[in-house]
Queue: 2 jobs
Job 1
Amino acid sequence: MAQYDVIVIGAGPGGYVAAIRCAQLGLKTACVEGRETLGGTCLNVGCIPSKALLHASHSLHEAEHNFEKMGLKVAAPKVDWKQMLAYKDDVIKGNTTGIEFLFKKNKVDWLKGWGSIPAAGKVQVGDTVYETKNIIIASGSEASPVPGADVTVDETVVVTSTGALALPKIPKKMVVIGAGVIGLELGSVYKRLGTEVTVVEFLDNITPGMDGEIQKNFLKLLKKQGLEFVLGAAVQKVEATKTKAKVTYKLRKDDSEHSLDADVVLCATGRRPYTDGLGLEALGVEMSPRGQIKTNGHWQTNVPGIYAIGDAIDGPMLAHKAEDEGMAAAEVIAGKHGHVNYDVIPGVIYTAPEVATVGKTEEQLKAEGRAYKVGKFPFMGNARAKAVFQGEGFVKLLADKETDRVLGCHIIGPGAGDLIHEICVAMEFGASAQDVALTCHAHPTFSEAVREAALACGDGAIHA
Ligand code: FAD
Ligand code: NAI
């Protein structure tokens, strides 16, 4: 029976990163994973496959709408769905086998199978019980059922994101329940592939929690792309046959009942922690009412020697948040000072244009009664964006009115998911809007729009 310093349960972005960092810090480490491949939700059925399909469908859109404008004459593009799925699967494989390579390189043992914790200091996989000084639970999350509605997921006609990433054919009509990140990313994929997409959302706006101005503009852009929205609607039930489904919802404003027919219904109303089979109840590990494993500021549960990270604990369900916690927890176990700054975790929606956000929204600053200023710059004033037909959207920078310290940034536009990191770094260093504005930005880049927004917090943008 092997004796480990650390056994990590789950090889998603939280778990595999934690395992690699533990090994790098000199700890004898194993990682238990029940799936056939490493990488968790993110690499197998989440971030990576969805980005592959977003890329392929965006490329189709470019070919259909922009090639001719640039003098590129090609035959009308056709979609070979089987090949598109094969491309997506290849991308997944490249990434998951990459983690296998990293495990070997860093001498992390992969214990194949589903793990449980019979007692603190022990992890059982199959019939084998391993001894370990520390355990990190990184068991991730699963799709939540649609709240308050009668819906049975079959992953063929009524699907979660997992089914939506591997549909046997491109549906003619799709109803998406939930206008959050999954609904809008995958809704965009199918819209670009020719599906009629209607998004039904409980609230009166999309992407709850985002800056209000971004929500409104994002909704406008998505509508312009042909996605349809029913807002303020509570889904009651989904009735499905083997090939069709009917979604019944009530409008919250007048309680009137309506229905929509679809070939596929995508349920995307959030995810919940997955901790089944770990034996946490018997161990007495404290959980929140929402099923999250409770941890302190050092990712320790109430049971000594058991840590938890990623989607299984509190906080945004994002791969990079899980990764950062994985590194930090490893450092804590190795006697170092692991740290995650939860105030500076970016969020990105990989639609076209992308949406990216970090720090406070204008609504949050108002609620806090904090005096702030806003610097905004539209991508229409950015030469590079216009040249590549991506002049839609804007950068919105929020800074403290007195000190000029950057408090948040919200971007819709080309490369928003990359641009946001300039502001993440600025916020980590406590920079002012003027610090960003006085930093030379190469021309012509999308990044100049961030600088112009920072200039707009002071004496004014140049190109607006
Ligand atoms: P997971 O990635 O869920 O990994 C947990 C792993 O633990 C799984 O492989 C599971 O099999 C394993 N496991 C669980 N229990 C056991 C057990 N008892 N024994 C052995 N193994 C076990 N986030 C982003 O930041 N960017 C994105 O673009 C993005 N896109 C997404 C798209 C979709 C469609 C979805 C569904 C999610 C997306 N996410 C994205 C969210 C992201 O996938 C998660 O936040 C991230 O995967 C969480 O990492 P984790 O390590 O906590 O858990
Ligand atoms: P979400 O929390 O982003 O959005 C769920 C939406 O469903 C909300 O708008 C909510 O108001 C709505 N809703 C809830 N109940 C409803 C009902 N009964 N009827 C209609 N609408 C209802 O959840 P989503 O999109 O499922 O994503 C889950 C998680 O995965 C997110 O927390 C996200 O962090 C992560 N993710 C991240 C991505 C990224 O970073 N690009 C991509 C995809 C997922």
Job 2
Amino acid sequence: MAINILAIESSCDETSAALISNGKVLNNIIATQSVHEKYGGVVPELASRAHQQHLIPTVHAALEEQGLRPKDLNAIAFTKGPGLLGSLLVGVSFAKAMAYALDLPLIEVNHMQAHILAHFIEEPRPAFPFLCLTVSGGHTQLVHVRGYFDMEIIGQTQDDAVGEAFDKTAKLLGLPYPGGPLIDRHAAAGNPHAYAFPITEMPGYDFSFSGIKTAVLYFLRDQMQADATFISRELANICASVQYTLVEMLLRKVRKAARELGLRQVAIAGGVSANSGLRAALEQEAEKRGWSLFIPKFEYCTDNAAMIAMAAHYKYLEGDFVGMDVVPEARMKF
Ligand code: KG4
Ligand code: ZN
């Protein structure tokens, strides 16, 4: 008999539902919230309200698409954290209500572990142990992955996430939110060594990205005072130089960790893994050092419920369920 699990993701600004059957992801329905664009960032209150509106239609669409009914399900999974508390509350409450109504077991999933387990949705899958760089708008983590739920964060950002650094720099350049993909696009036509921005040195495997934002702010202020057309004239070169600096900071730590821990399989996860500069740099590095490099499909890099479903499948096999008293955790650790 098939084991069918419905998974729900609502940690930030994507409402998503996915179905997994016997470990195979069947679909991944995502309702993106456009309401935040005009504010230049995610507004938590609006995100919670949009989850309320989108969640039932999203779940309905996932079931309908596969011709499944609620009574065909064997468990309900949800993102417990980390994330925006109001957004998480909507998903957790819905999952509990559905599990209660159908008398099904509940499975809680850590969103950051799920980003890593997205690597198991499709071939090629990494083998344990491997190193994973998780880079998103909210997180920058270097993780030693020894098993599905045996993961250790060996380094992380002490201030801004790298996606935030991309987005904040883009804002300084007058680009709309989220600016990360736009920096990537403009960078393609620029010289990465046109301008030098400082590389922040951090101990161990930690990162710091707030310095570059400040450096870019002062750099642009000075240049624009001298020539008000500077940004529009030099946009590609500025983007390429900023991207080069951010990627170089990530790369140094990945290289150091892979060498010191003796890991030859390197994976990336999270929205920033879409960045072409990061991909190219890692591909080059992998070639040079004989690493196997794993990059999930873009759909599984950004926030999605398929990765929650994948994590839930492994938890189901272990009989790892939670009670109805479960509550979300905005700062959930591994
Ligand atoms: O994982 P994600 O979809 O959401 C969370 O933050 O959890 O990541 C979104 C982040 C944003 O900061 C966005 O600007 C960045 O990923 N991003 C990129 C690219 N595509 C998305 N940053 C740089 N280059 C890209 N191509
Ligand atoms: Zn995420």
